[in-house]
Design brief:
homodimer, 438 residues, alpha+beta
Chain lengths: 438, 438
Amino acid sequence: MNIILLSGGSGKRLWPLSNDIRSKQFIQIFQTEDGSYESMVQRVYRQICAVDPAATVTIATSRSQVSAIHNQLGEKVAVCVEPCRRDTFPAIALATAYLHDVCGISEEEPVIVCPVDPYVEQSYFETIEELGRLAGEGQANLMLMGIEPTYPSEKYGYILPADQEKISRVSTFKEKPDAETARDYIRQGALWNGGVFAYRLKYVLKKAHELIDFTDYEDLYAKYDTLTKISFDYAVVEKESDIQVLRYAGEWKDLGTWNTLTEAMEGPSVGETLMNETCENVHVINELDVPILCMGLKDVVVSASPEGILVSDKEQSSYIKPFVDQLDNKVMFAEKSWGSFRVVNIEEESMTIKVTLRPGHRMNYHSHERRDEVWTIISGEGRTIVDGMEQPVQAGDVITMQAGCKHTIIADTELKVIEVQLGKEISVHDKQKFELDE
Amino acid sequence: MNIILLSGGSGKRLWPLSNDIRSKQFIQIFQTEDGSYESMVQRVYRQICAVDPAATVTIATSRSQVSAIHNQLGEKVAVCVEPCRRDTFPAIALATAYLHDVCGISEEEPVIVCPVDPYVEQSYFETIEELGRLAGEGQANLMLMGIEPTYPSEKYGYILPADQEKISRVSTFKEKPDAETARDYIRQGALWNGGVFAYRLKYVLKKAHELIDFTDYEDLYAKYDTLTKISFDYAVVEKESDIQVLRYAGEWKDLGTWNTLTEAMEGPSVGETLMNETCENVHVINELDVPILCMGLKDVVVSASPEGILVSDKEQSSYIKPFVDQLDNKVMFAEKSWGSFRVVNIEEESMTIKVTLRPGHRMNYHSHERRDEVWTIISGEGRTIVDGMEQPVQAGDVITMQAGCKHTIIADTELKVIEVQLGKEISVHDKQKFELDE
């Protein structure tokens, strides 16, 4: 099957583990059978591959997530980068054009669009596969997934099917209701709208050409920033009469808040944690190198990352967003295509970071106008290129770079470096990239 | 007045702010009128100086606290170092001999011994001053402070006075009772034993010579490790018949647990903190550079330092000690005579620390056998001496030192340095000190 995973925005509701460049889907919090931890995106990708090892998975996302995606899923997965945020219709149109023009998928083939972050059991993806098959057979122009509701939620949109069959015509859509109305919908046999669409490729391609003036993927990509923001629901779904819905009755959780996320955790904690016996329904996610000790807490989530510490009653944690907006959020760690970095010290005119490069990877060849840098290699082996001159480096070596000097570092094995940045105006924007003739 | 402040042990009950080399009395947590924060020891010292600007203050403590004492109180305060821990009788005997032999205090002068960490109002030290005056006048061999109890505490020893006068003969001492017995003592007019003693210098000097074979302070210091551990209460107080007690009725708190410590805080937080409006009776002490966000908590204390994070119900926090013993406690920050350091990164074969030197101070001239070091100066000006060669340094300079090489750094202004230590067996014990001819 051809599946497009929509990988969305910044997700402040899971602060301090999500930040401007790390969305919630990349938090490694779910314990796997071998004891290691995987993220939402890794879990979903693993489940898709288990159902269909030949699946073509394309992730539609912004540039800022590309490194994290490749670090977590490997290089095999296709990434369709949105040059800027333009809501779901442009995103799905671009990804569909990408499948057609770049991957060579035929116009007749079915495509399934799915959020990247549902917490579901395997059978969800079996249902998705069936959804694709039905779309491919021309069962309807648009096939949706309807989730059997387990309670009258106010957080989801509802689909009212024409009958109680496994596959039904859609009679109408309802926006997020209040609990009373939701109860009424459920009595009428309504389903939650899971945000999953399946269609034949040519269907969305035709819709895209009707609404946007473009020739092919390249052209659409080039003019992406001129497109109007509009959702796929509004632009396509609500205007389509030939829609059917396929029921899914398995587990389905939206892990958008700390409260729901901790429900999905295997054990009470991730990271170095100690709880005394008087703790009840407490979850701790600790990404720091020092221990967290909890005593006498009830219904509390504690989460610590290099960017801050949250201690919250679980119910209250869903109101986090406006408080996070008030905080001075510095990016203190990030995944890059070549590895990762973490800020370890900030002073008025210096910043010290720990850089980890993956074997075989290297930074861009670059320079800074307004800061000097000092690298101290703390482990591994590699090479530096400074103003065109290459030299081997290993633990203990020190490289100093004046402002203006072009430099990069190449990891032959995993390479760890303490980088001290020195200058009056240290900024991530002070960076010029250069081509490197190797 | 001559006052000896007993500055005690490590205090795991206030983890993570106290550690093996920083005791609770050095935590800067009490807001002063100018908005800055002071520690217990700073508060007590300020209160003593307000009552008697000419007071001779001597702090009896272990070597590990000397730097913190001078950093917090300045160089003027006298420190009587116990070479090892031998309980309160040897400590008071040593400090008394120090006052006599080193400071030249006459045998007839009164001396007051007082814990370094009571949280009290100014009138406590007025009572202490009176206690000293009474001892000096020969009112009794030993004068004690009796604190008017406010509840039947099980945590304190009790003094039963012979009558209800302001100054009374002591009729008997009682060990920490259960609450029922405490109620009974209070009905009989008992007072809490505040651990404060006043006497004429010659009185304790005589007791010391009776129990220990020594000539003078130097000699006592030299044989200190051979002394038997014994408390002043057991060795002296319980055997003395001529004891009187002076009442104190003001505020007196023992800030030994997070519960009592947070009661004494001026506001709900120290450090970068945000609480939502549903938090009730929550206190946060944050020594990290990143924010702590609290939501929907009740009766909770949160404390974060470079060594760990505590999140505890306030009542439960008094049971912390066995849990802290279970943690792998690394010393991640410390005050030194020349400034302070903080560990910012630990790897298998490297450790990175931020070093801050106070202007005019320097490290010991030293070398390491099993690690190389790299200094990157990040701010300030000073000089390094490496294998005898002195050179000026400033922000941006890098100094590399191979294992075995002798080195030191001297701060002319405040000097900050990122030090990367590289080696297979990095240990604080791997250090040889040398004399430096300047």
